[in-house]
Predict the structure.
Amino acid sequence: MRAGVVPLARCLVASLVLLASGCRPAAGEVTLTGDCAGQVGTGMTAESVRVGGIYPLSGPASAYAAVAQGVRAYFDHVNARGGVEGRRIEFLVRDDAYQPARAVEEARRLVLHDRVFALFQTLGTPSTAAVREYADRWRVPQVFVATGATQWGSDTRRPWTIGFQPSYVAEARVYARYLAEARPEARVAVLYQNDDFGHDLLDGFRQAIAGTSVRLVAALSYEVTDPSVQGQLANLAASRADVLLNVSTPKFAAQALATDAAMTGWNPLHIVNGVAASPAVLQPVGYAKVQGIVTAGFQKEPGAPDWADDPGMHTYLAALARHAPEADPAGQQVVFGWTAAQAFVKVLERMRCPSREAMRAAMRSLPDVELDLLLPGITLSTGPDDGFPIESMQLTRLEGNRWVRFGKVIDTRAEFGPVPPQDHP
Amino acid sequence: MNTVPGLVPAGHRRLPVGQAAGDRRQVWPWRRAGLGALAAGAVALPFVLPPYLLFQATLVLVYAVALLGLDLVVGRGGQISLGHGAFFGVGAYTAAVMIAQFGLPYPLTLPVAALLTFGLGWAAGLPALRLRGLYLAMVTFAVAVVLPPLLKRFPAITGGAMGMPVPTPRAPVLDDDQWVYFLVLGVTVTAFAGIRNLTASRGGRALTAIREHRAAAEVLGMRPATHMTHAFAWSAMYAGTAGALYTWTAGFVSPDSFALSLSITLLAGVVIGGPATLTGALLGAFVVMGVPAVARELNPAAPGVISGLLIVLVVYAAPTGLTGLLRRAAWSVAGRRT
């Protein structure tokens, strides 16, 4: 053992010398000089910008992998036209299997090993919450995450992360506004998932109906581990409410829709939240049984007759056929990916310096930016204290096997004011 | 493999490592030079490696501590434990809850995690170690299965299925990751020294005796259940300590990170590294950490398949554990027969 001491001491001296000179392999860390002195431009050169995304390509939520297809199709489309100000977008996609621990691991690999400029999208609330700490710690932008939790927008202490889609609170406000106008005496029963997502929407709804004559008469929760929600539905029916607000994820939404359709003695107006308003939910239940249900949306629906002559939709369909022939053009997830990617490119174009700080500033100062596949009247806008890019939605009703828009676009920011900041640990 | 060339049965019949654990022959011929080079390399590492590789090197040390612990039960004790991933997880969550929920300073988490898992190991060992072999494997298997759902059950404390981000230690002089590396290195060196002393002690020799011939050991006055319970508690403590170090390094814990697959990975690490040797724990840790990383680089689409194939390859090339392979290679260079 003693012989090890001498080399050890020598080595300690050597490493102290190294330390004194600050000698450490930086491996791609770039600090800018000139006008943008001191800012970090790692991952961006004059020819390219490297961006990483983390999606559940495998595992239980792998259906959401379609978002990555839409994103890649848009970036390929932009690269084919010469990139953003001459920079090609290199998009690295990683798989987290919807496990937050793997999302953090992949984020670490993307930031430290692949040296990405920014993280563009993590998918799902757990993964996003896990990566957010890491992004904040290393000051890497985590742009337009694919989840509707309210905290991405309201948490001003972690400015490197920003949401994209309307928050669940905004969605709740849209339903509240609709009920206050169309059915001022509505008695509402709520079925909700007992987690952050369910509580976000329910609390938002409660606050939004305060001061109106709409009343909440029953609210029952279920756990994601429950086998079925039939019991909850039976109890909600006993409340004799005339509106049922269905705040649930696809599997449970389908169960609730089927149970509601089977109960002939109780026929409330059925409002289903956006995350569950997909063909995958409605088809198994049967379109004929769920006619007239209401939800809120913010993107154009591919294939709808309204957009047959829409230039944005034409570009989307053509680019998808060329760059991502395996993707389903009608899928809402693909449209979502495409739209978010376009928003990311708009942010890139608005940056003053090729640095992460400039990206943070740009993504937090968007003035009514229009995107091809957002419904007319819906734009992106953010501010230094406003991390909610989209806060407007339009109601749609199921007619046949298509969602038909009705009413005007409801801008929840204009009508309710900003979402109150929440205290998050 | 029937005979090993050069093996002269003199008094005791000696078997190569892996066929029977507990081979006490020297693995490395140039002991002092080897240790010196290892120490020099370990200290220089943070100054030559880029951050991501340094992170992986830190995790290698973390897993080495866990493997040292598991080796007490598997290699020295000759039993199978499938529950060490759970002890690792308990240690990790103890540190995470203390730091993130109660805001306690991180150095405090190491002794608490160690004590807690020592107690848990003791409690689990009391009834479990009257069982042996496959039955012990089943009981520890149950421990591993029960932990993740339990962690998900109390979201107010553990963060539930979403997991919990944990602030990592801040460095007084170096970069943060270099600092964590040195902390982990210090604990690892202590852990190696501890196992070295433990296995050379009376209890360690008793453990080997019990493994080799339980009845004979009992006749000689050793109480197998007592010795095994001790070993199991120490072993769980090592796993728990490694868990706390993991939290310091990774800065994030979630229930699914400590599922049954971790226990099995650790067990594979012990066997591949070479049971009942100190070198084996370090080599095994390299495999546990390195194989998935290499697999991801080789084929990002199917890391699982590549990982499995690589393990098959390692076991095929080194049936007596990597330690056995290293011993043969080193001594053949040194010019002496083993």
User: Anything to note?
Assistant: Residues 332-349 of chain A form the longest helix (18 residues). Chain A has 14 helices and eleven strands. The longest strand of chain A covers residues 402-411. Chain A touches chain B through 36 residues (CB under 8 Å).
